[in-house]
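Closing statement on the adenosine-5'-diphosphate sub-project.
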Amino acid sequence: MKKIAIFPGSFDPFTKGHEDIVLRGLKIFDEVIIGIGYNSSKHTRYFEIDWMVKKIEETFADNNRIKTLVYNELTAEIAKKIGAGYLLRGLRNTTDFEYENSISQVNRYLNEKLETVFLITSPEYAAINSSIIREVHKYNGDVSDFLPYKI
Ligand code: ADP
């Protein structure tokens, strides 16, 4: 049986920290599906969804074990539909842990076959944070060092 993991997030934007989790995830799983949670009726993103998908696909163009999926439902449900037995998440600090702990409990309740796997961030990426990147970009700061693709 193929080991498929879904790596869900808003990825607004997808960063080098996210890329690191995906690539390390590939050492554990046969396939990693980057799931971008997106509700088209709520325009709350900073970076356009289509642009983001294109950039992620560009980043992993030469790796057919990495796929991208935009979804608008519970992660626990989409995981069932795509046959993902694992939910991959990254942990940077205790704030992430508190939050991730709660969602993983809920996800277990919603889909008991889905096992959440956490990878601790690599130290060089620990400070990379999508919301800070959005803020810097908004005021015309250079964020290219934090992203695995050209912006
Ligand atoms: P969400 O909106 O679900 O928190 P994010 O796009 O912010 O989604 O993050 C998706 C996942 O990536 C989360 O598990 C988050 O903890 C992890 N993550 C975010 N930034 C980093 C980083 N710099 N290093 C490792 N993991 C990260």
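Helices lie at 16-25, 49-59, 75-82, 94-110, 130-138. With this model delivered, the sub-project is considered complete and its resources will be redirected to Aim 3.
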